[in-house]
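Field reference: sequence -> structure
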Amino acid sequence: MILITGATGKTGGELARQLTQADVPFSAIARSREKAEALLEMEADVVFGDLSDRAFLSAAMAGIEKAVLIMPNVEEQLAIEKQFVDVAVEAGVQHIVYQSSLESVPGSTNPITSIHVATEEYIKASGLAWTMIRPGFFMQTFAASAPRIKESGNIVLPLGSATLCVTDLRDVAAIMAKVLTEPGHENKSYDITGPELITMQEVAARFSKILGREYKYVDLPLDAFKGALKNAGFNDWRINAVAAELNSIANGSLDHTTNTVQELLGRKPHSIDDFVSDNAALFR
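Structure field:
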């Protein structure tokens, strides 16, 4: 049996959808019935609780062979992820699939990437079979800002003129599904990107060409971006962590692509053109 965390989020939700389409049974963790509405419509086996609750985790992992660990970036993330690994070992889980990130490399000092590096190392030392899923910048970030992009025609981020490997989470979920449903992926790390390097100015140009309306990239100063996050209600740790991550990307941390999607799935990864076309209704 497979256990998915983060199944009410974007990547975990897409993984749940793809597993459901493939008739692969799984169990998913959710905090509340309200958040799990889409999972319940899939007739998924949903268990309700908090990842930080060790007793709940122990019960949720009973009979689980493979566990997928996907977490939002929060200050207590490392402690929660380490506890998850410990409970997985105690419960006899055989294989853990962890969503890390492409820019998480040893020596990283950014709050988010340093957490990913530490969790990867902890998993590798646990004795569990593991697979690290390491995607680049998600195209779905634009979908999260779709109402503002639709209204203003502006794509606003503090990324300067950096080239980056935007990545479709549909490809990431497809690789996760493959890892979970066939042997041969144990103790491997998969760096996942889209098919090309692109600047945000070029992203805006693709939006304009495909959607038939002018879109512009606004390179927001980092301090102004942090102020916008504060006004949105984010705490100081989250603001500083996200700002550090975006500053790293602006300085070239995602300036390469990989062939992982082609090698594992036998097809090209989704491009930014595919993403915009498939989600046109969100932005028009």
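Note: The CA atoms of residues 31 and 50 lie 6 Å apart.
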